[in-house]
Structure formats: structure tokens, C-alpha cells
Amino acid sequence: MNDIGVTCFHLKKYEKAELFLNKALRLKKDYLHARINLAYVYIKQEKLTKAYEISESFSAAEQNKIEVIELRNYLDDLSHIPLSKNSENTLHLNFTSRESDILPLEIQENIVSDSDKGNLDISVVVPVFNEEGNIKILYDRTVKTITEINQSYEIIFINDGSSDKSGEILTDLAQKDSKVKVVQFRRNYGQTAALSAGFKYSSGKVIITMDGDLQNDPSDIPLLLEKMAEGYDLVNGWRKNRQDKTITRKIPSKIANKIINILISGSGIQLNDFGCTLKAYKRGIIKNIRLYGEMHRFIPVFAAWLGVKVAEIPVKHHPRKYGVAKYGLGRVSRVIFDLIVVRFFSDFLVRPIQFFGRIAKNIIGWSSLALLLIAVMKFIFPDFFISFNTILLLFCIVSVGSFQILIMGLLGEIMMRIYFEGQKKDYYIVEKIIRKKR
Length: 438
Hints:
Spore Coat Polysaccharide Biosynthesis Protein SpsA, Chain A, 48% helix, 10 strands
């Protein structure tokens, strides 16, 4: 009965969907998925009172289930976002695997439907992780800046599993200001996941991203928009006078930017500061990009490969006053590995032999050069070196081992993407979305 109801839903026969879902519930009153599905049918029929009644009927144990949380978040958002009768993408229905004669259904919806996206001028997305001393100041400055340029807006804070008072402060802001939305993660997933969630739940025609540590300045937002008005689709901030520690932050960043520019020389884009979070995107760009690892910094690269226009402008950068930096030297290596993946997926995904062939050629070439050098040194200093055969074996093991590890990493990356993208899954879990009812 549940499946028939879902089929009717897809055919937009909502009365029949209601009929069959009610029959499923008569057979099994505590059928969780049928109750959730029926609530969504009521939403499409604009019977919101009945949908709210269902959302309030779940037991204490059921209230902690992600499907129930998502239903309540959706209903909460309907209080200030109108539901379009003509939208075909308002709700996204997916069947789960067959485990019984009555197949359960999970409805996974967006907090903002595709038809409602783009209703606002600007969405400001701010990842937050233990920034209790910065949040309120950043909020005040952002509101002041956007109000001055007379644009409709929303501010989306992503609480990336903070363990300090950041969650309480963000909840207070969201309850006081209907323009603030808080996306609460169940744990810390990292900046890339936070930005992905911000993109997903945003409604603006232009999305502005910035750090939550006050090092980016909200007063630069009008500069990004002015540059975008010249015909660019993405505007990247450049922390020209970066206010960070030289050895642990500035030098590694400069080196990483140089390496990135070398490796993406064929993309048609060269930037001074890939790591600057302060960026402006047109909505059409981000909806076509899926992010993993540390890949948020490579969005300009993806955008260039998509053929859009990218610009870079100098922006202000302030020293951190409150809290501590969340990144160290170890982040550089993760960025380099992600860059290898970016190169693979952008240039060699449909012809992987070219990618692996180049790596194998370089490994063989450098190994041969090293062996030649060792042979010459052994001839000059015969008593200094150990057995040449031992050195040869060592080089072979290291070269083959490194190549195999790289291949396994790329294969793992491919399988991970097949898993998440094939099933349209997110690799983060949203615990709740907090927003004031209007």
C-alpha cells in the first residue's frame, strides 16, 4: 500500500496517494515511513494542519530519527517559504532497499525547494567551529554591510560540531532574526562539508562565503558584487596583506598556491590565493559542483573548467583576535593530495591510462636517473656504498609501492564518489536546522 501511495504521488494523484497511505496505516498503525509520506502528501495538498498533527504524533524514540527531524525542519520552513503548487522538485522521493513485502519509503527533501531558490539577492554562508567570541560581531558587521547596499539577504551559519558556546549563540541569533538560518551538524565534518551544506540550503541568486573568525571583512562584500557586475560568474578574494604567522601560515600558503597554479596551468585560471574563503558565486555555478576533502578551495578551478568567467580582487584581512586557528602545516599535504584528485577527475576520468601512464613514466624516469647517479658514485667511491643490488631492489620496491598506493587512493576516491553521488547522498549529517518562524 505504501508503494502504491508513492507511485500515485509521483503521478501527482495526491488524493489516491492519501487513500493508499491511510490503508497502509490501517494495516500497521506505527508504520513510520507511511506516516512521514502521508505528511508530505498533505503538504502537497496544502493540508498543513494535518501535516503538523502527524509531525507532533511521533514518540520520543521516533523524534530522534533523521526522517522525522527532516520533516519537522521542512514544516518549520514552510512558515516563511511558500510552497509552489507547480513545482515538480519540491519533494524528492527515494525508495529504500526491499526488506519486506511492504517496501518502506524515505522522502528526502530540501529545506528550500528548487523553485524557491533564487528568490533572495544574497546568501551569506559562514562555517563556524568553536568561534563563540566572533559570531555576534561578524553577524552585526554583515547585517550592517548588506543593509547599506539595499539587497535582500539571508545569513546561513553552519555549526560544524562546535564544542564551545557557539551553538547557543547561533540559536539565539536565529530565534531573534528571521534572516538567520543555522544548520547544525551532528559532529565536525570540516570546512568543505560546511560550505556544501550552506550551498544546499541557500536561496540567494549570489552566494557569498566567508570565514567565521573575523579575519575576512564583511565590508568587502560590495567590492565582490561590483566586480561580479562586470560580467564575472565567480569572484575570488585575495588576502594581499595577509595577517597570519609567516612560517606556519603565509609561507606554506604561498608555496601551495604556486604548486596549484603550476598543476592547473591548462585550466585557463591562475590565482594568488586559492585558500581565501571570501568569495562570491552565482547560483548556477555551485549547483553543478560536488565537493569532498579540502576541495572547496578548488571551486574556481572547477568553475574555469566549466567555462565560466573567474576574477580575483584584493580584500582586507585581519589578525585573529578571538579563538585559535584550526589549521596547521598538515593541511598543506591534504590540499596537494586533493589537487591530484582534481586533476584526475577534470582531465583524465574518461581516459585514466593517460593519468597513470604519466605517473609511471615519471617514476621510471626519476628512478633511472637516481640509479645512474648511484652507479657513478659507486664507481668513484667503491668502498662507501653498500651492494648495488640492494640499492636497486630498494628503489624498485619504493617506486612500485608508491605507485600502487596512489592507484588505490584514486580507486577509493572513485568508489566513494559513486556511492555518494549515485545515491544522491551527503557525506555529512544535519542534526537540525534552526530558523525563526515568521
